[in-house]
Structures are given as C-alpha cells and as structure tokens.
Amino acid sequence: MSMPVSAPSTMLAHVLAVDDDPTIREVMVDYLAQHDFRVTAVADGRAMQAVLAQDVVDLVVLDLKLQAEDGMALARRLREESAIPIIMVTGRREEADRVMGLELGADDYLTKPFSPRELLARIRAVLRRRRPEMQQGRPEGIRAYRFDGWELNLNTRRLLNPDRQTVALSNGEFSLLVVLLGAPNRILSRDQLLDMSRLHSDDVYNRSVNTQILRLRRKLETSAANPTYIRTERGAGYMFGVPVEIVY
Questions:
Q1: Is 218 helix (H, G, I), strand (E, B) or coil?
Q2: pLDDT one-digit tens code per residue, 162-182
Q3: SS3 content of the chain, % helix, strand, coil (to 5)
Q4: Residue 49: what are its φ and ψ, rounded to 5°?
Q5: Looking at residue 198, what is its pLDDT?
Q6: pLDDT exceeds 70 at position 154
Q7: Confidence label for 62 from pLDDT (cuts 50, 70 and 90)
Q8: Could you give the CA distance from residue 17 to residue 42 in angstroms, rounded to a whole number?
Q9: Is the distance from CB of 218 to CB of 224 less than 8 angstroms?
Q10: In the chain, what's the furthest Cα-to-Cα distance?
Q11: 201 alpha carbon, distance to own chain's centre
Q12: Rounded to an integer, what distance in angstroms lies between the CA atom of residue 52 and that of residue 39?
C-alpha cells in the first residue's frame, strides 16, 4: 500500500484523491493546495478507507480504473457508507461507465486527460451545490440515523430512545447531533462543529459547542461524566464513539 501524499493540514475543505498514478497524485496535491484546499492523495482503496476512518473528508476524487481494484466497487461502498461528494475520474470514454458512475451516486464525472484547472472548477461547483446540505447536517437522501437502539429522524426532527420514547431536542442540539452522527468515529474540532451545525446564531465562538455537548450528554448518556456516545478528545474536539446506521 502506497503512503498518502498530503498538502499541509488546515481548516480548509479536505479533498481525498484516489489514483494509482503517482504523477497525477502529485499534480492534484500541488495544484489544489495552491487554490485553498487541503488535499490527501492515496493510491488504493485500503489507503482511502484509512483516511476516511481517521479524518473528515469533504469530497473524494476517485479514479475508476485502479490497477488492483474496481473503482466502481469502491464508489459503491463509499456511497453506502457516507454522503461524501464523489467526482469520478477515468480514462474510459464509454457512455455506460459515465451513466453507471452517476447512478451509483457520483456527483460529477471527468474523463482523462483533464486539466487541473477543470478539476478545480468541478470540485468548487460540487462543494457549492452540497454546502447548504452539509452545513445543516442533512446529507441528501438520508432519512434517519440509528445507533445503539436510538433513532434520529431527520424529516420529523424527532429523537427516539431505545424504549421508543421521544426525547425533546432544541434546534441547536438537533443540528449538532446530526453532524456528529454523520461522522461517527471521526474527531471533529469545535470550529468544524460550529461551521457544520451553524451554532453561530445560538452563541459565539466555541462556548456554544461545549454547552450543546453538555446538554446532549444529559439526554443521551447513562452517565454524562463518563460518556459512551459523545467522547471528548482532549485538545482536538469531540467524536461520536459508537457505530451509526444510515436509513435512506
């Protein structure tokens, strides 16, 4: 497995590029980093999953024709597990491949050879379209999240406990919980939680996140002092620490 190539880590939008051509990986990292993106470039599906498991990714650029793997299968798995936007890349020009990729849930499609400038434009366009959904914690097509017997319905904004009783949530609590459930087992900084859940209107700076986390723990956890679900990662932020099922 090839080691990932990364641009400097910042709070910029994070693009994960999956391509087995090292030259293309380097070009994407260098060019996108020059245009205010954080970029991680890897060569295969295993490395892709490792990045997704430990970091927040805003968009994936995925080559369909990897040497040892089926990029279409990777795209299918990615779409089943998350709502992260996908731009598919391939050297094949057949219409069937483009159609299949889009039907799997890809947000856009590029055919090699392409210019870095065109890739940049398409990335910006996809993120522009998806940003309102992601900031509200409402990935397109997802109706509910389930975890450990709990269920959060995104359409009704209703939280049910394992006994199927409704647990009331404020708007801020709901927005923050949706963001956490959308990125299980990933550390989210306070700044990321503020931006993605739009808690700015409830309070200012990071204090609003701390307040909402405390209130959510009181409603979810058996012991708010020893939380199972919303864990504090000292110096980094918070992480939702149990598996989450997505209901489409």
A1: helix
A2: 998 989 988 888 889 999 999
A3: 40, 20, 40
A4: -65, -35
A5: 65
A6: yes
A7: very high
A8: 6
A9: yes
A10: 57
A11: 23
A12: 13
Give residue for tokens 């949530």.
169
Supply 34's token pair: 């020059």
- The b/e string for 168-185 (b: 16+ C-beta within 10 A; e otherwise) is ebeebbbbbbbbbbbbbe
What is the average per-residue pLDDT within 105-122? 89
Q: For residue 22, how many other CB atoms are within 10 A of its CB?
A: 12
Residue type at position 43 = A
Q: Are strands 38-42 and 108-111 parallel, antiparallel or unpaired?
A: unpaired
Cα(225)–Cα(217) distance, integer angstroms: 9
Q: 95: Cβ–Cβ under 8 A, 6 or more apart, which residues? A: none
Question: For the chain, give me the number of helices (H) and strands (E)?
Answer: 8, 13
Return the pLDDT at 92.
63
- Rounded-to-integer distance, Cα 131 and Cα 33, Å: 20
Instruction: Determine how β-strand 59-63 pairs with β-strand 86-90.
Output: parallel
Evaluate whether 193 touches 199 at the Cβ level (below 8 Å).
yes
Cβ atoms of 2 and 26 closer than 8 Å? no
| Token representation of residue 96 | 């069937």
Strands 230-233 and 166-167: unpaired
Asked if residue 112 lies in contact with residue 89, where contact means CB atoms within 8 angstroms, the answer is yes
Of 189, 171, 157, the closest CA to residue 55 belongs to: 189
